[in-house]
Amino acid sequence: MKKVFGGINLTWPKVIIMAIVIGLYTGLMAWLPIARHTSFSDLAVTFEVWIFFGIFIIMNSKSNIDSALKCFVFFLISQPLVYLLQDVIDGSNLFNTYYRFWLLWTIATIPMGYIGYYMKKDKWWGLLILLPMLIFVGAEYSGYFSKMMYSFPRHILTNIFCVSTMIIYPLGIFNNKIARKGGLIISGLLIVIFTILCILNPPVYSTQILSNNSEHPFDDTCSVSMDEKYGELSIEYIDAIEDWMIHADFTSTGDTEFVIECPDKDKQVFSLTIGNNTYDVVQK
Fold first, then answer.
1. Which residues fall within 8 angstroms of residue 16, CB to CB, at 6 or more apart?
2. Which of 170, 176, 217, 263 is 20 to 30 A from 148, alpha carbon to alpha carbon?
3. Virtual CA dihedral for 83, 88, 90, 94, nearest 10 degrees?
């Protein structure tokens, strides 16, 4: 672990090759349909893995300037490749749409790389430099823990990565006892607090899934039900369309069915596929 955080001769060719390989890999995972909404594509949209790369470069640099420049060049190469690869494959325009956001963070890596190098001094105050990164990773963990609850086992690897790195950073970066123990305590508290908050506030995908019409009529005299494992359904009157619709509060992804029962009418049965902020309804 100590070798990863300061024992590697990180030359400029290594930084450039690493940036190209990681950028292309991230772009490929973001494009592959089978990898979408999984741990393999998470690094295309959030920071947890990129924070690791930043710390890795910082701890294996030779000076403040070396750290700042290598962080900047690494992100300057890797981030555009993520979008350019997808643009080349499917003709999308992701680079012009999204890169401006990552460009700001790329520029910010210059001061972050410069200041981050001071963690190598192994002083107690080095923890103050690491602290924002621990909080950042903790926030990403919170988001992905909720997503994992909603679509388990998707994102489980990202959650393991976040928790592991929050513990590894203080141990791998510092020998100073105050910094190490303080970092472990902070990381532990963040993990516990975010986990509890996610459990107390489980994710819910709320949407309207079906409207009243001649093929499948219903109103407030009817009832609708499905397996509670996937959430709850209710019949609501929507003023905007002046008609009845079935409202859904989904709490999990999967395949199930729901049933509409109305007085003096046959039951209406529908198959329901619930995805990540998507759904598909087919009447049986």
1. 73, 77
2. 170
3. 30
Ordered per-residue pLDDT tens for the chain, 284 residues: 778 888 899 999 999 999 999 999 999 999 999 998 899 999 998 999 999 999 999 999 999 999 999 999 999 999 999 999 988 888 888 888 888 888 899 999 999 999 999 999 999 999 999 999 999 999 999 999 999 999 999 999 999 999 999 999 999 999 999 999 999 999 999 999 999 999 999 999 999 998 888 788 888 898 999 999 999 999 999 888 888 999 999 999 999 999 999 987 888 999 999 998 899 999 88
Phi/psi of residue 61, each to 5°? -90, 165
Query: What is the token pair recorded at 242?
Result: 């002046």
Please name the amino acid found at residue 72: F
- Overall pTM > 0.70: yes
CA dihedral 207, 212, 215, 217 (to 10 degrees): 120
